[in-house]
TrEMBL record:
Annotated InterPro entries: ArsR-like_HTH, HTH_ArsR_DNA-bd_dom, WH-like_DNA-bd_sf, WH_DNA-bd_dom, WH_DNA-bd_sf
Domain of life: Bacteria
Pfam families (alphabetical): HTH_34
PANTHER family according to UniProt: BSL7504 PROTEIN
HTH arsR-type domain location: 5-98
Source organism: Vecturithrix granuli
Listed GO MF terms: DNA-binding transcription factor activity
Lineage: Bacteria, Candidatus Moduliflexota, Candidatus Vecturitrichia, Candidatus Vecturitrichales, Candidatus Vecturitrichaceae
Protein name according to UniProt: Regulatory protein
């Protein structure tokens, strides 16, 4: 396994953290995810938009009362690609342990 072959969309610190959070928690609001990851609004927005563009997460915008609310959830494709990413990462780590 070559580290360069890891999923480049997921294999970035903030995007990996977003995916990990959504795999474990299911659905999170913008403020929840921002606080959990300790990132800026802009940083979260840019990385989430890229994940959505690739079909890995879904971003829903609605209103809670009169306040706008953004909610993130993982798609089935996102879950599948994340699991593949983890398998490849584990395979790579196993090779390192053998060396």
């Amino acid at each position: 396994m070559n580290p360069a072959e890891l999923n480049k969309v997921i294999h970035e610190r903030v995007r990996l953290a977003i995916m990990s959070a959504l795999v474990t928690r299911g659905r999170l609001t913008f403020p929840e995810l921002k606080e959990m990851l300790d990132v800026t609004d802009g940083n979260l927005s840019v990385h989430a938009a890229l994940l959505e563009k690739h079909g890995l997460i879904r971003i829903d915008k609605d209103f809670h009362g009169k306040k706008p609310r953004t909610t993130f959830s993982i798609t089935e494709e996102g879950r599948r690609q994340f699991q593949e990413y983890i398998v490849e990462l584990e395979r790579m780590l196993a090779q390192v342990k053998k060396a």
